[in-house]
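Regression test attached.
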Amino acid sequence: MSEAASVAADTLFRYVLRLGDMSLVLAQRLGEWVGHAPALEEDLGLANIALDLIGQSRFLLSYAGELEGNGRSEDDLAFLREHRDYLNPILVEQPNGDFAHSIVRQVLIDAFQLALYERLVHSSDERLASIAAKSVKEIRYHLRYSGGWLVRLGDGTAESHARTQAALQSLWRYTGELFAEDELDRSMCGHGVAPSLAEVQTAWGARIDDLLTAATLQRPAGQAHAWHGKRGEHSEHLGYILADMQHMQRTYPGARW
Amino acid sequence: MQHPREWPLFEVFVRARGGLDHKHVGSVHATDTRMAIEHARDLYTRRQEGVSIWVVRSADIAASDPGEADSLFEPARDKVYRHPTFYDIPDEVKTL
């Protein structure tokens, strides 16, 4: 905490929430596949990734709760926040669509998380650095899984290629938000807590280009973005996700396993 | 006979830790070896059961015919002298 101590706790709180919410919301989406994936083995594969992501969000939300200092636990933050207090990028809350759609979303996020966490390992904030060191191994596997499927589908049959390209076309517009730096990002970067998003974007773009080439897919043009999930302005989808995820705690407050 | 739209079956072998043999643990469906290893990883090593995985297409395994068991395995039954049970093991040897 030496250098990071100069960062205001409430600023760091919001940044850690961004990271935690990205993992949590994506995990919830992946969980929807359980029982519906194309094969039993894929059910397990997607559920395993979802569990990794929930694990990451638990570490991050617990840390966020400590930073906030109001005694909120990881569960309080996950189950009792309103959707406008969620700070995940819009991309992770996009509906699953068909399998190709979910795989494309997964590749775009996995490559982003990998580029980001590879650098967060060197964060001036020790707690964040240690969470990143643990998570980066998981994320590397996630990209291996999703990237493998991207190549298989893109370079597969005419139909799988068309569906994958269509998914890429429809999801690409949400990637701009990942790299749009705002004051919070700049502050984190300035204190050495987080890398510059321009650097993350370069690393992300190189990996994505390699995968798209192998998958014989076309990189869509432009990453225009008018979305601000990172500031709590969400699409209508997040409300449904949270209703699903939070109804138990809201109906039976304090219920435990 | 395998349904044409079903993914091929792979047999999975897992090494529990360095120095041990790979042991057969089960099978997974997959379209290729890379996917088979991923499925095997998710299915058979999620509780730290292994440090290495082998997969091989089930169709590529040649097996002995149970109908030939008599001629293949029966002849070994009465050849007890092949077991190293006729040696006196010195007390100092602990790990034999």
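Expected vs. actual: identical. The mean pLDDT of chain B is 89.
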